[in-house]
Amino acid sequence: MKSDIEIARSIELKKIKQVAEATGIPRDEVENYGRYIAKLPLRLIDEEKVAKSNLILVTAITPTKAGIGKTTVSIGLTLGLNKIGKNAIVALREPSLGPCFGMKGGAAGGGYAQVLPMEKINLHFTGDFHAITSAHNMISALLDNHLYQYQDTCFGLKEVLWKRVIDINDRSLRSIVVGLGPKANGITQQSGFDITPASEIMAILCLSKDEDDLRRRLENILLGFTYQDEPFTVKDLGVAGAITVLLKDAINPNLVQTTENTAAFVHGGPFANIAHGCNSIIATKMAMTYGDYVITEAGFGADLGAEKFYNIKCRKSGLQPKLTIIVATLQGLKMHGDVSVEHIKEPNAEGIKKGLKNIDKHIQNMQSFGQSVIIAFNKYASDTDEEIDIVRKHCKEIGVGFAVNNAFTEGGDGAIELANLVVDTIENKPSAPLSFTYEDSDTVSAKIEKIATKIYGAAEITYSLEARKTMKLIEKMGISHYPVCIAKTQYSFSADPKQYGVAKGFEIHIRNIVINNGAEMIVAIAGDILRMPGLPKEPQALHIDIVDGNIEGLS
Predict the structure, then answer these.
(1) Residue 396, beta-bridge partner list
(2) What is the pLDDT of residues 441-466, one digit of tens each?
(3) Is 73 part of any domain?
(4) Co-location of 62 and 138 in the same domain
(5) By the 8 A CB rule, do 299 and 271 touch?
(6) What is the tens place of the pLDDT at every residue in 508-536?
(7) Do 208 and 78 fall into the same domain?
(8) Is-contact 487 273, C-beta < 8 A?
């Protein structure tokens, strides 16, 4: 079979205005970014149409380092629904350069279920990530200038909370010292970098409902505290207007197309292990304005992305999914059934049966939100029918729908079984209204503990002195009603990436808490998770090149 990038190049793309018109989007409203990419104005969102659309969430079992294939399933399902005569649109996150040149090599789907043009989407795209990076670091520069100019007055800050970001995996930047050298170089102080998907501005972009809401949230970003112990915000710095200007175009959602020339929205890109892991509310609602069925994904396993999709994105937007799909693979199940990574492509019925406990835990979690759940089995070439039947029979025994997804090799035709199951489930067994894991009125510690015990299965939650101090500060600031976003490893229900399957009796240690006052959420950092990833020994960048004018190595 051809590589992803070879398949992408073999597809004859339609001009983006043709894609828009076929979707019902007025041609005159399309702002071209080249021939095959466009942005759309926010005024096109129609809340009445949004309310009538069928929103479907795609999530997954706890992933392997190679991933599970949620994006491929999301795109494939969209193609399959269109094949059976439904008006379906996919709404995804934008890829980050860090993983593209680090571990993954790309994040635009795979095989014959991709969003295109994949090279541009995986690289600089419409510049949204660069705009977010620039806006974040502009605040850093303006804040440092404020500290420098007022260092001998009472207008300085006792504590600075704001760091910097860059969309590259660079472990050397996690902790740095700025302002070294002559006095004119600024104030010497400790700082550091997070990766751009972890930026609070990324979360703000994804959670804002319009430009006015974007500016309001930017104004409320907490930068530090004065010597009088008062919060110091972007509004106090006086630069919210300038930062909004930098994001004026980035807030508009991006329209692209699939390998079968159907519409796709790709906008925003927070990671689900260190942020809230969902594409923008704006893009989701734009897709729901024009699609009767809208498929969106939430990052990593359901304990991370899906939990945050419901408890943060849906809570703040009022969105109500009709169905949740959990993606599973044999390799993932074997890994959770104690089969070593070296042998997960080999037949192993016992490993699969043991690994089914991971599926069961995720199903129970999703049902706790009131969601109807089905399993999408993402098929790989090495999978056998006998092994697939083990999973199919198990799903039948527990009363959960099951369908094989072959969209990677067959495009929309390979997802017809899944598409029919989705439509049947929504028509005959739609999800109930969402039931959240915690109440807005709960304390921050109660919210953390409810997520950790109910969703992860933790037995004990502990806090560092710094985390406890921040929780008291949150109460003092009157923002305890914010939802909680727990940052932890994606490879386990626990905070230990090596505890596969369904970890039990474990402790979750909250080592730090970050106040995202503009995004209006509290980020609790669990275990050893880092908000700036490092590169592997053999990064994907070693395999990315231009050969005869074509980009190679993206997948």
Answers:
(1) none
(2) 999 999 999 999 999 999 999 999 99
(3) yes
(4) no
(5) yes
(6) 999 999 999 999 999 999 999 999 999 99
(7) no
(8) yes
Please answer whether residues 524 and 484 qualify as being in contact, where contact means their C-beta atoms are separated by less than 8 angstroms. yes
Judgement on whether residues 397 and 453 belong to the same structural domain of the protein: no
Q: What are phi and psi of 378, to 5 degrees?
A: -85, 110
Instruction: Single out the residue in 244, 264, 295 at which a domain terminates.
Output: 244
pLDDT-derived band at 107, boundaries 50, 70, 90: confident
Q: Tally the domains of the chain.
A: 3
Report angle CA 60, 293, 261 to the nearest 5 degrees. Answer: 90
CB 134 within 8 Å of CB 249: no
Structure tokens belonging to residue 432: 């109930």
Range of the domain at 116: 4-126+250-428
Pull the structure tokens for residue 511: 């080592």
Classify 60 as helix, strand or coil: strand
Q: Would you place residue 555 in the very low, low, confident or very high pLDDT band (cuts 50, 70, 90)?
A: confident
CA end-to-end distance (rounded Å), the chain: 13
**What phi and psi, each to the nearest 5 degrees, are found at residue 155?**
-90, 5
Whether residue 66 is predicted with pLDDT greater than 70 in this model: the reply is no
Residue that the structure tokens 């076929």 belong to: 22
What token pair was written down for 317? Answer: 């937007």
Burial class (CB in 10 A: 0-12, 13-18, 19+), 371: buried
